[in-house]
């Protein structure tokens, strides 16, 4: 099975965010593969391994630094990559614009499925899967936690997370699948994998070369930090029971929630 | 029409509260407020939307809308949107809304603004405030196309009763069946009446300090005392240890929540967790480590062993409730 995995490089979850203009200050940030995209990479590699056939192609929009995350995915076991290295396009790209370039890059490839994370943990928009499906003319299944392909590779049976439970759906391939946590446990790249990744082909393009000029449809006008939260009071008491009583009293009389 | 079209989501045979929130917000903006409700049995529910400001309610009802399938719902909604021609479309950023909203925007070939917590009108445009980086930063965003498609986080806006004209119109939808490729084989929804974490008013959450899956029972017991709007949550450490399902996880790779009360038990307060619950109205932390970062955010801190505090707290609350 041939798969395409869309990958975004994002700040690590431990990053303290600082605002710079209508974006964030990027100094000192540790960049990683978006965790949800990492599940997507892992699933694509597992499907390839299971069938002992096929290819995994990474497609990523990002500036120069994104190559590190692309190489990480190649080291995990992906075969080749398209890096849309276009800083100017990337800087203003919203999910709409991002999907336009990803779709343009994917259109030239041969694939049975497109995998990507259900959202990137930087802008948290969760829109690219839907836009990609629309642009590629493919059905979209979001929040995937289990994925199985039929022997003839014509359909996939997929479990997706829904409110308060799960839904099992069947969909003809090719289709777009967005990964939710729980789909799998991503592997670490092995040392031989890292060595091999250095030689794997990465096709570098810009948005213009893909014939994409679509700009963003949403604009950030202002960026701010949430109001700082102050530490409140520590509840004192002789023992746990006394503290619990004081806490219950506070919840009753001050918070008025009981 | 210079007005707003809202999507009223139906779950378990009822209109979700989030739909009332966006309806009353739309009414506040002025202009005509149209609502679209889709689901099997939706017709009977439609009049409820008038109470919160809907002037016109489009109903798409039928057995084919029993389960939410994106393509069918998107086609039905877009048909209504093409009739109404709104300048703004508001949806709820519920689990279903997160699937539905971008699909609607994609079909209309416009951008979308996801999971907003504040909306304000500037001239003809709505400017939305939304968290990014799981709440570590906030952005003011304008969708430049028409209609502006905006999803709103449940519980963020609140709602009030403002009557709308409430004319109900049943819509016959011409579905293009050839595009409906996703077939639902099974739906398993837990019998629980617990609200989703993103919509709960009270969350009792447990972390590494819970020591094992069996101990979450006492957090469930504590949550139950707060009534039907309460539920439990978990930190990434507890989920990664396999003690709780991922659907309980609060934080950057889980859910971002904003309840009235968040009780963190045995949670140290890693930055990615604090981002996910930092906008809770009141935070209580119970942890035996006085240095735990969670105490820097908590309104009430209890430095003690949670295995002593939580059972005692349950007894004390029972006493107060009588």
Overview of the structural elements:
The complex is a heterodimer of chains A (about 260) and B (about 325). With about 260 residues, chain A is an alpha/beta fold. Chain A folds into two domains: about 5-205, 3-Layer(aba) Sandwich (Rossmann fold); about 230-260, no CATH class. Helix content of chain A is about 30%, strand content about 30%. In chain A, the strands form three sheets. In chain A, strands 11-10-9-12-8-1-6-7-13 form a nine-stranded mixed beta sheet, sandwiched between helices. A two-stranded antiparallel ribbon of chain A has the order 2-5. In chain A, strands 3-4 form a two-stranded antiparallel ribbon. The longest helix of chain A has 17 residues, at about 35-50. The model of chain A has no long low-confidence stretch (mean pLDDT about 95). Chain B is an alpha/beta fold and about 325 residues long. Chain B has helices at about 15-30, 40-45, 70-85, 95-110, 215-225, 235-240, 270-275, 305-320; strands at about 5-10, 10, 15, 35-40, 55-60, 90, 110-115, 120, 125-130, 135-145, 150, 165-170, 185-190, 200-205, 230-235, 260-265, 280-285, 300-305. Chain B has two domains: about 5-180, HUPs (Rossmann fold), CATH 3.40.50; about 200-320, 3-Layer(aba) Sandwich (Rossmann fold), CATH 3.40.50. Helices cover about 25% and strands about 30% of the residues of chain B. The mean pLDDT of chain B is about 95. At the A-B interface, helix 4, helix 5, strand 9, strand 10 and strand 11 of A face helix 4, strand 7, strand 9, strand 10 and strand 13 of B. Strand 15 of chain A pairs parallel with strand 18 of chain B.
Topology:
The complex is a heterodimer of chains A (258) and B (322).
Chain A lengths: L2 E4 L2 E3 L7 E2 L2 E2 L6 E3 L1 H17 L4 E6 L4 H11 L3 E5 L2 H6 L2 H13 L5 E5 L10 H9 L3 E10 L5 E8 L2 E8 L2 E5 L11 H7 L4 E4 L12 E7 L8 E2 L5 H14 L5
Parallel strand pairs in A: 1-6, 1-8, 6-7, 7-13, 8-12, 9-12
Antiparallel strand pairs in A: 2-5, 3-4, 9-10, 10-11
Helix pairs in contact in A: 2-6, 4-5
Chain B lengths: L3 E5 L1 E2 L2 E2 L1 H13 L3 E6 L3 H4 L10 E5 L9 H15 L3 E5 L2 H14 L3 E5 L1 E5 L2 E8 L4 E7 L4 E5 L14 E4 L12 E7 L12 E5 L9 H10 L4 E5 L1 H5 L20 E5 L5 H7 L4 E6 L12 E4 L2 H16 L1
Parallel strand pairs in B: 1-4, 1-6, 4-5, 5-12, 6-11, 7-11, 14-15, 14-16, 16-17, 17-18
Antiparallel strand pairs in B: 2-3, 8-9, 9-10
Helix pairs in contact in B: 3-4, 5-8
């Amino acid at each position: 099975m041939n798969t395409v995995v869309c990958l975004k490089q994002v700040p690590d979850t431990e990053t303290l965010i600082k605002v710079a203009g209508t974006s964030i200050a990027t100094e000192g940030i540790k960049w990683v593969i978006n965790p949800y995209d990492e599940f997507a990479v892992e699933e694509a590699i597992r499907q390839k391994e299971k069938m002992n056939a096929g290819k995994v192609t990474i497609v990523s929009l990002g500036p120069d630094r994104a190559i590190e995350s692309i190489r990480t995915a190649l080291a995990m076991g992906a075969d080749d990559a398209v890096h849309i290295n276009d800083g100017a396009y990337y800087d203003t790209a919203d999910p709409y614009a991002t999907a336009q370039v990803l779709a343009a890059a994917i259109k030239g490839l041969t694939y049975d499925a497109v995998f990507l994370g259900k959202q990137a943990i930087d802008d948290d928009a969760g829109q690219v899967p839907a836009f990609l499906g629309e642009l590629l003319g493919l059905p979209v299944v979001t929040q995937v936690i289990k994925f199985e392909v039929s022997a003839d590779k014509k359909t996939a049976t997929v479990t997706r997370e829904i409110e308060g439970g799960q839904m099992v759906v069947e969909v003809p391939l090719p289709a777009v699948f967005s990964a939710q946590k729980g789909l799998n446990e991503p592997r670490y790249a092995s040392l031989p994998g890292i060595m091999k990744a250095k030689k794997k082909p990465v096709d570098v393009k810009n948005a213009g070369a893909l014939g994409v000029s679509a700009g963003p449809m949403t604009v950030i006008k202002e960026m701010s930090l949430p109001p700082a939260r102050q530490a409140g009071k520590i509840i004192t008491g002789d023992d746990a029971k006394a503290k619990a009583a004081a806490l219950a009293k506070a919840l009753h009389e001050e918070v008025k929630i009981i | 029409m210079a007005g707003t079209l809202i999507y009223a989501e139906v779950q378990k045979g009822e209109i979700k509260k989030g739909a009332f929130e966006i309806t009353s917000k739309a009414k506040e903006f002025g202009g005509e407020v149209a609502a679209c409700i889709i689901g099997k049995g939706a017709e009977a529910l439609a009049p409820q939307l008038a109470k919160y400001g809907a002037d016109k309610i489009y109903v798409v009802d039928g057995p084919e809308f029993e389960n939410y399938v994106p393509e069918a719902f998107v086609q039905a909604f877009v048909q209504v949107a093409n009739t109404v021609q709104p300048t703004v479309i508001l949806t709820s950023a519920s689990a279903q809304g997160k699937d539905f909203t971008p699909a609607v925007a994609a079909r209309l070939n416009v951008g979308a603004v996801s999971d907003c917590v504040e909306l304000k009108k500037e001239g003809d445009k709505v400017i939305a405030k939304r968290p990014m980086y799981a709440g570590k930063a906030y952005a003011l965003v304008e969708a430049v196309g028409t209609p502006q498609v905006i999803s709103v986080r449940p519980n963020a806006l609140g709602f009030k009763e403002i009557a709308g004209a409430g004319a109900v119109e049943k819509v016959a939808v011409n579905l293009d069946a050839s595009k409906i490729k996703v077939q639902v084989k099974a739906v398993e929804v837990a019998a629980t009446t617990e609200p989703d974490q993103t919509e709960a008013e009270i969350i009792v959450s447990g972390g590494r300090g819970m020591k094992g899956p069996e101990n979450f029972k006492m957090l469930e017991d504590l949550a139950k005392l707060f009534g039907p709007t309460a539920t439990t949550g978990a930190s990434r450490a507890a989920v990664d240890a396999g003690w709780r399902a991922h659907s309980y996880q609060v934080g950057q790779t889980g859910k971002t929540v904003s309840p009235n009360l968040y009780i963190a038990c045995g949670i140290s307060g890693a930055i990615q967790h604090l981002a996910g619950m930092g906008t809770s109205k009141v935070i209580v932390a119970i942890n035996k480590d006085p240095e735990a970062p969670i105490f820097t955010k908590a309104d009430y801190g209890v430095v003690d062993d949670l295995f002593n505090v939580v059972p005692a707290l349950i007894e004390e609350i029972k006493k107060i409730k009588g």
